[in-house]
Amino acid sequence: MATRQVSRLTLAPQLRDHLTANNLTTARDVLFCGPLDLMELLGLTWQQANALLADVSAQTTPPFTTAWELLTEANGPSAAPLLRTGLPTLDSALRRGVPAGSITELVGPGGVGKSQFCHSMAAAVSLPAECGGLGAGVVYIDTERKFSAARLQEMLNARIAAAQAARAEGHRALPGPGPIAAGAAAQAMQRVVVLSPASTEELSRQIELLPDVVLRHHARLVVVDSIAALARTEYGNAGDRDRGGGGGASGLAGNIMDRQQVLGRIAAQLKAAAESLALPVLVVNQVTTRISRGPQPPGPGAASGQAPGPGPAPGSGGGGDGSLGAALGLKWAHCVNTRLVLQRVGERRFLKVAKSPACAAVILEYVIGPTGLQQVDNADLPEVLYGNALAAPILNELDYGANDAWAAG
User: Fold this and answer.
1) Ranges for the RecA family profile domain (predicted)?
2) Which pTM value belongs to this model?
């Protein structure tokens, strides 16, 4: 909360202007000053300076609450609207759909449907209530230039057609108050704001201004597709060591450490925005393939007799002795609240809840259709999807001294 902007604090307008003029733009900047510093910078008295510090501290200190109050608030009339994914098994497991106030991460190899998931969520939020949507805005941060307005329009038209068909058949599942207005798809697309940062510095700056953008466009969802693209481009991948890039192992280690610091700052900004605005933040991550050159030590389940975790699924892009894991390392992995893993087995696609504070691990099969991701009912799940969660590969930032070859997934 110390990163909250001074402009969002409840202070006298003239005092806020004086703080900003003296480059005290966040609560952290103010609290790092002592009373004497504030007296000199702002012309305050000793009592006024101490009162200002106490006021800023009170506004940025998270208040305590009880579990009952949290539950009552989550189910009350002022609760954030439910954001359903359209995948019944996943929505049931997550209880209230994509959780608000936290970061949900999508991980998977290329072409498995991560961006399609993001587009479908944008459609679900931007559609009007009479079509089953929220009628709210979406902030879509597109770092890979993968956003497709044509695909979003296709999803919107398909969902509107399905809503019209349901109304014609007399179904009451849709909560809308009246008939579907003409031009609903165009109106929905006008609610989606697309930002395209070209660097991690620009991404951080846009996330810092996110509260203003969210409030201006009445957004109920923030999408970052993807968090890994800019970081891996600017700071390199571990695979650069074998390709002669990154200035050797020591240069690579420095790049990785710098990258983790940047990712930590961006994650903190995203968490602060999600919590203060009570909305879901959906972040896409890439995968990394680790290729082993020699015999590997037994996994975490070997000593306890548990079955090892699954290797790369057939058709998922892994091969040989490689295994797929989420990119960006353990520090980033601990920043996300919910992790959804998308993977292929042959020509079939599956979604798995790999990390969540609110539900057990569930697996479902899906296909990509006109409306987005659609669940396959009563699907037989392959055994390769099950395994010991402790042995599932989550790669560290850098394996110092190990003779392994790394390649970007």
Assistant:
1) 79-287
2) 0.71
